[in-house]
């Protein structure tokens, strides 16, 4: 783990809404008693990859079959679609085994989560897009993997593919036959397995990666990313005082539990409660956050992409909002320029905007329309990708970034 001081870890954790005491000098000590498997073991998730999938992708890549698979996958979109034809038999067998929800999935909770996502949509677009998306660039392994994989060279389409995942997850019919999420998850899981075989062949990636990361995207890495998404969003919604019933909170977690399962994370690592998720996040996410040259570059590219649409605010405002969401330590790491005037507006105006939207204050703040246009602009950015001709399907890579 990075050598972050305890004080710094606490500061960053608090800024991200991940309160608690993390000790970066400690090894993984999260007991699976807090997992949905409810066993009591301590297994290091950084030593667990995807045995059910990785050998298959080695075969498909080595035998040059991925381009044909990607073509066949174009017509495989809805959860209820017939399995794609013309693909290798071993892949058909894999899809038959994985194209379904886990036995413990609860359709009532998933339906509740879908309604919750709909009600929260404006906040979710903002938090996933400007919060989690930028946080991924200060997760060193993720930043290096994303930068040096094939898609790192074409971040616009890569970001669009990631939007596809978020859009499919948050759709009202995400887990139903008309929804896409199970299929999208399977394509993502296959993509990750391909990356595990491809990235270690990249001299650029090997030159920058840390010693333990000899095979990328372990279960531990995926858990970290989950915390930068689900746990972070949940923490922010709570800290902003957004109304959430206990059943909604549980349903939102359940949706992520199923999502993690579909990405190949073992049940004994998947947190059973938000309390367990926060505890795991303290071990797994907060102490690892750090700056890398790759992350600084990726953040600049990502923020540049959102600046291309008119969010009704200045570039300085947008960067300050990212700082507001992630804390100034993260903002400094990413060298986000300061705009103190915008920051002052955000510090006062955003809580007032949320309070008015949530009905806890009857006073319309003078900056209401500024924030409303901003939040709607971010949502449109997301929705345009999900519904228009620019919808970008997830494809399995066959190589790495050239340099
Ligand atoms: C690809 C989602 C965790 C690295 C993808 C794709 C999605 C996705 C949707 C396909 C679209 C694309 O190519 O960008 C997720 C989710 C995660 C997760 C939801 C966890 C909850 C991780 C982690 C890493 C990682 C932990 C690395 C440490 C990559 C890389 C690609 C990829 C390198 C391939 C990009 C390329 O084609 O070059 N991921 N991911 N992902 N992911 Fe993940």
What would you say this structure looks like, in words?
The structure is a single chain. The chain has 403 residues and is mainly α. It has one domain (1-20, 50-396). Helix content is 58%, strand content 0%. The chain is built from 17 helices and no strands. It has helices spanning 6-15, 54-62, 66-73, 89-98, 107-135, 140-148, 155-170, 181-198, 203-208, 219-239, 246-262, 274-284, 293-307, 315-326, 328-333, 340-357, 368-387. The longest helix has 29 residues, at 107-135. The protein is globular, with a radius of gyration of 20 Å. The model is unreliable at 19-25 (pLDDT under 50). Bound molecules: protoporphyrin IX containing FE. The site of protoporphyrin IX containing FE has 26 residues, from helix 6, helix 7, helix 8 and helix 10.
């Amino acid at each position: 783990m990075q050598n972050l001081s305890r004080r710094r870890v606490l500061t960053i954790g608090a800024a991200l809404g991940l309160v608690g005491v993390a000790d970066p000098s400690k090894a993984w000590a999260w007991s699976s008693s807090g997992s949905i498997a409810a066993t009591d073991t301590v297994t290091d998730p950084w030593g667990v990859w995807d045995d059910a999938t990785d050998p298959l992708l080695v075969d498909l890549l080595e035998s040059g079959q991925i381009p044909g698979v990607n073509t066949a996958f174009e017509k495989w979109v809805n959860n209820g679609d017939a399995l794609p034809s013309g693909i290798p038999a071993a892949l058909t067998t894999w899809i038959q085994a994985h194209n379904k929800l886990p036995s413990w999935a609860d359709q009532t909770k998933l339906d509740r989560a879908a309604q919750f996502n709909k009600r929260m949509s404006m906040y979710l677009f903002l938090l996933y897009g400007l919060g989690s998306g930028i946080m991924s660039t200060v997760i060193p392994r993720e930043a290096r993997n994303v930068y040096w994989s094939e898609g790192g060279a074409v971040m616009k389409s890569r970001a669009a593919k990631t939007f596809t995942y978020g859009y499919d997850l948050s759709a009202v019919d995400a887990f139903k036959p008309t929804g896409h999420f199970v299929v999208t998850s399977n394509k993502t899981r296959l993509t990750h397995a391909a990356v595990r075989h491809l990235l270690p062949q990249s001299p650029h990636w090997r030159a920058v990666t840390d010693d333990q990361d000899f095979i990328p995207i372990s279960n531990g890495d995926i858990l970290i990313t989950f915390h930068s998404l689900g746990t972070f969003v949940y923490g922010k919604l709570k800290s902003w005082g957004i109304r959430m019933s206990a059943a909604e909170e549980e349903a939102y977690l359940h949706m992520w539990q199923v999502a993690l399962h579909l990405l190949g994370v073992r049940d004994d690592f998947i947190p059973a409660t938000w309390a367990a998720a926060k505890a795991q996040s303290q071990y797994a996410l907060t102490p690892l956050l750090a700056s890398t040259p790759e992350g600084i570059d990726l953040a600049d590219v990502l923020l540049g992409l959102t600046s291309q649409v008119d969010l009704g605010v200045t570039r300085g405002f947008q960067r300050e909002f990212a700082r507001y969401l992630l804390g100034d330590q993260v903002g400094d790491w990413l060298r986000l320029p300061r705009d103190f005037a915008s920051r002052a507006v955000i510090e006062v105006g955003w809580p007032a905007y949320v309070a008015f939207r949530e009905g806890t204050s009857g006073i319309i703040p003078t900056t209401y329309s500024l924030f409303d246009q901003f939040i709607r602009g971010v949502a449109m950015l997301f929705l345009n990708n999900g519904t228009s001709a620019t919808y970008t399907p997830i494809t399995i890579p066959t190589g790495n970034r050239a340099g």
